[in-house]
Automatic annotation (TrEMBL):
Gene3D superfamilies reported for this sequence: P-loop containing nucleotide triphosphate hydrolases (3.40.50.300), Tetratricopeptide repeat domain (1.25.40.10)
Keyword annotations: Coiled coil, Repeat, TPR repeat
Species of origin: Pocillopora meandrina
Pfam families with a match to the protein in the record: TPR_10, TPR_12
This protein's name: Nephrocystin-3
Amino acid sequence: MTKGNRAEWDCTMLFYAILFSDCIHSLNPVVWSNVDKLRLFRNEEFAHIARGRLSDVEFQNAISKVENAFLALGLSTVKIQDVKTQTCFPTEQLIHVLKKVDDLKQEQKEQQRKTLEEQLNSEASSFCILPPKPSHDVANRDSDVSKIIEQLKALKNSTGLSYLYLSGNPGSGKSQIASLVANNFFDEVKGSTSFVMTLNAENSKTLMESYATFARHLKCPEYAVTNTLISKDLSTDEKIRSLRTLISTKIELYSSWLLIVDNVTNMSHLDGNLPDPGNGQCAKGQLLITTQDTASIPPSGSFIQHIPVSKGMEPHEAGSLLEMLSGFNDPEMEKEVARVLDYQPLAPASAATYVREVRKNKLTPNFGWDDFLKKLDQGKRSTTEAMLSGSNPSYKKSMTAATTLAVKKTITMDKVLEHTFHFLSVCAPHPLSLEIVVNYITKVNEELKDPEILATRICKCSLLLFEEDDSGVYMRVHQIVHDVINAVMKNFAENKELEAVDGVILSFYQVIGHALVEDDSHTLIRTKNIVPHLVTLSEIIDGLFSEEGITDAIKAGLSTPYDYRNYFQTLGHTCQKHCEFRSALRYFNATLRLTQCDDVFGDEDIVNAYGYIGTAHHALGHLQQAKECHDRALTTCLKKLGPEHIEVAYGYDNLGAVHHDLGDLQQAKKSHDRALTIRLKRLGPEHVDVAYSYNNLGTVHYALGDLLQAKECHDRALTIRLRKLVPEHVNVAYSYNNLGAVHHDLGDLLQAK
């Protein structure tokens, strides 16, 4: 415009020159107004509209505006009249031209889209997405992490996908170990194009959402991801497979990768939903799968390995975690608490959080680990777990809640493990021979008879721990698993409890029955691992076979009263040999109640029961109760069997031992004299039981100060034992020891030596 070449002006320039520039001065208002109307008409109806059409009425109104303006300006309207009366316009031709324009623009956009998509498909950037972090610090688990990293390196296979399974009970720290391993993996490959991704495989929905996140991190087309997620025609599994297809085209761009498949509760839900091992695009990757479903883990091989982590942290790691999270230091108690909590990561975290928060309360600033252990003893573990579970976004279930869910699910899905848990519910949380459990299952379920298959299925349960030594394979459970199993099994019908108790009793009886006829040392070795379970079982027996419940127990039980009597005596004697006298007393009391409530038993059975109870009371230091029991037994023996029956001799021996410990030595001597007289007459002078009587008499004479009589008795006992027993027998050693004590007090020190 400044150059004055009006041939280069457009409408905008023309209107500006007429209306707003200094080119024309004192413009007539009528002229100015009509020119401005033409300007506005041009802008509103044509210039600023990309596409448009006018109806007949709109067209006539527009023409009238232009015509009126031209008339007001004194301009010719001939051409306007031509347009106004025109009946045909080249609309179709214009539409055709516009379509060509649109097609060219669309073609250009498609080309741009393809170029951009090619750039996206060829672009790969590293990323690391780990499992959610808990709301608290975690232990480093250095030993476990190193072991798993070494296994991953050994599994690395350039020709195919490899799998490493981490199994464990709820709260064992599977996810956090996987996170620590993955973080280490990513640090080692930072120089290359690589990724770590976590899929939440708790259920199909969480898995699908994780795959969508995965696809976006790989920069798959957003429209494809979104369309898949919102599709109403696809099931969740179909959406997962569609997302997998998108992802597979991008994975091959990475030189190495690790995919964590976390929180798998049921391996069957993953069928077809994981990267295909036969897909060459996945050859550079590895899968780290965390699961409770140990039974479904494939056998180990060149590209599959399995590492269980149920045993938990190292003791020092658990102690350090307790100190770090609780905010105070008590090394000795931390060791004890860590042991009680079985070194399971979630358990110390819950415990430390609880103690820390309680100590913040002005009423309990000195609350410590001993107070916490008292809470556990009171059965308040779930209360102590609530504080952490309510504030932990990565694991909202408490240890108790998660374990309960796992136990219930296991019972529902596996009959073998249901029987196993029934067995464990009446046992202690101590190692237990796998063979005993397998034998129990074969007896309570006729359909389950193959011991090898049963053992294999039991060993694949992540809630159970296993250890092996020269005597066999042993299984055990963490304390919390034991507590949960007991709680869950209480909901079963009472006849189920009796069935389980009956089977457990028989299983233990069969294992230890023959051992009792062997020498004491061998018996102790063979039965030592059973005793903790016999102690727990004795408490259950004491309740089921109480005076109020014994009749119902006999009616509902699977064994006869006679069999129960034999079982309880055997289990009681085993407890007695291992100095578990209270448990022995429970078994012997149950034996007495059996003999008193059923006509199948005679006086001799009652005598034996009182004798066993008396010996248990004696061992516990209950001397008056022991004397009362042995008096009853002896009185019945004398009445029913006569004064010279061999059982009477045992009665006198038992009474003599009690009198000795009560300090009534003369009465003790009298009892042992009577026992010796009966045995000499009925058994002869060379019988080992006669030696036993001489030994008892010698002990009483020694206590009375009658050293020569004591020496004579112990000499006779030793002579018989040397003839009837091997020189290395423990009773021979007892005789030598007793003689040595007598020689010492006689002043014959060389002989004593």
